[in-house]
């Protein structure tokens, strides 16, 4: 089986592949277990260092630790997802989320549906709701359903790895030994349970995957609830163009779901501050120590984001910044 071929490697230790090649993982601070990687390659007696950022996380986010910079490298490959924009500020997001819950579930007596990636985003929202409950400000009569088998499994993994938590959540554990469980929270894996949520006509919060609503159970929740003005869809994090998530955010009046045309009567709210990807300035801060790289390659982003991020890197002193074409090969 493929999984038997995987070998777990710690952060911050050079792992040797052979006499000429070794690598080191650093915590990327994006999701649980994410890493950037630096390769050391000896060639004709000369060491070349090649670094790949992967997804650059964000500092000061709940649950996981902050991103750790890579060693200085000769050749850098960097992502650029949010290379052309900044996130909303974070300090008020708990207050804003509570206001959305009260507006939707108490005032409108409707459903708050949150499309969320199964790993990291779901756990971050659960943790935030858990803190509200501990503080006594969460409306306890409003049930919360995590409706995604993968998200349920991922949350169990999060709970099993406190060594990956940051200082904030370790301090919170002194108050609540289970940051992913509270009285009103229900985890659902079954198909029958998921279908039942669409028949219940009462206020509730549904957290479901896929995060961009292009697949998974949340697409069925979209189909069954998008025409109901009592419903609110809360959009958190990143989305690709041409997805239902993007169509909602752009304010379309109708959308095609499972072959049927549905009117968009539900309320749509966005909170970009939940994103696990660093924004332009956060990525620039993370890459500060790489200005001496001989060449920088920009990948993993829409072309407009790549172009904007290229300019930003050049403005802070990066030399020879290049946007490669798909499948292009470069000799270094």
What would you say this structure looks like, in words?
By secondary structure, this protein is of the alpha/beta class. The chain folds into two domains: 2-85 and 277-322, Metallo-beta-lactamase, Chain A (4-Layer Sandwich), CATH 3.60.15; 93-274, Rossmann fold. 27% of the residues lie in helices and 21% in strands. It contains nine helices and 15 strands. It has helices at 93-107, 121-135, 149-159, 167-172, 191-197, 217-225, 244-249, 280-286, 303-315; strands at residues 15-16, 21-27, 35-43, 46-52, 75-78, 111-115, 144-147, 185-188, 204-208, 232-236, 254-257, 260-263, 267-271, 295-298, 321-322. The protein has a seven-stranded mixed beta sheet, covered by helices on one side. β2 (21-27) and β3 (35-43) form a beta hairpin. The protein is globular. The relative contact order is 0.17. The model has no long low-confidence stretch (mean pLDDT 94).
CATH architectural name of the largest domain: 3-Layer(aba) Sandwich
Gyration radius from CA atoms, angstroms: 22 Å
Count every helix, treating DSSP H or I runs of 4 or more residues as helices.
9
Largest sheet properties: 7 strands, mixed
Q: Give the N-terminus to C-terminus distance in angstroms.
A: 35 Å
| Count of beta strands | 15
Structural class: alpha/beta
Classify the helix fraction into a percent range: 25-40%
Compute the average pLDDT. 94
CATH class of the largest domain equals Alpha Beta
Q: CATH topology of the largest domain, anyone?
A: Rossmann fold
Total of domains: 2
**SSE arrangement, N to C:** EEEEEHEHEHHEHEHEHEEEHEHE
The strands making up the biggest β-sheet line up spatially as: 1-2-3-4-5-14-15
Q: Report the sheet-strand fraction.
A: 15-25%
Poorly predicted runs are none
Q: Could you say which overall geometry the principal axes of the C-alpha atoms support? A: globular
């Amino acid at each position: 089986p493929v999984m038997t071929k995987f070998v777990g490697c710690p952060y911050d230790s050079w792992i040797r592949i052979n006499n000429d090649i070794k690598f080191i993982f650093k915590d990327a601070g994006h999701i649980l277990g994410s890493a950037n990687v630096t390769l050391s390659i000896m060639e004709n007696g000369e060491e070349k260092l090649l670094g790949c950022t992967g997804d650059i996380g964000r500092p000061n986010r709940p649950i996981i630790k902050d991103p750790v910079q890579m060693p200085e490298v000769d050749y850098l490959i960097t992502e650029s997802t949010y290379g052309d924009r900044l996130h909303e500020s974070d300090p008020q997001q708990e207050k804003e989320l509570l206001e959305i819950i009260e507006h939707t579930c108490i005032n409108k007596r409707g459903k708050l549906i949150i499309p969320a990636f199964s790993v990291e985003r779901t756990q971050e929202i659960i943790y935030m709701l858990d803190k509200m409950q501990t503080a006594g400000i969460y409306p306890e009569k409003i049930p919360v359903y995590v409706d995604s088998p993968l998200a349920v499994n991922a949350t169990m993994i999060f709970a099993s790895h406190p060594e990956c938590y940051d200082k904030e959540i370790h301090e919170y554990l002194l108050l609540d030994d289970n940051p992913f469980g509270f009285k009103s929270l229900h985890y659902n894996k079954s198909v029958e349970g998921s279908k039942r949520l669409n028949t219940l006509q009462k206020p509730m919060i549904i957290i479901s995957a896929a995060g961009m609503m292009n697949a998974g159970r949340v697409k069925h929740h979209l189909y069954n609830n998008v025409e109901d003005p009592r419903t609110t869809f809360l959009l958190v994090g990143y989305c690709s163009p041409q997805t239902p998530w993007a169509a909602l955010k752009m304010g379309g009046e109708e959308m095609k779901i499972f072959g049927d045309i549905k009117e968009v009567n539900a309320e749509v709210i966005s909170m970009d501050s939940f994103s696990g990807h660093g924004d332009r300035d956060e990525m620039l801060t993370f890459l500060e120590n790489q200005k001496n790289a001989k060449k920088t390659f920009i990948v993993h982003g829409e072309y407009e984001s790549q172009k904007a991020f290229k300019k930003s890197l050049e403005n802070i002193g990066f030399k020879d910044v290049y946007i490669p074409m798909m499948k292009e090969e470069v000799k270094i």
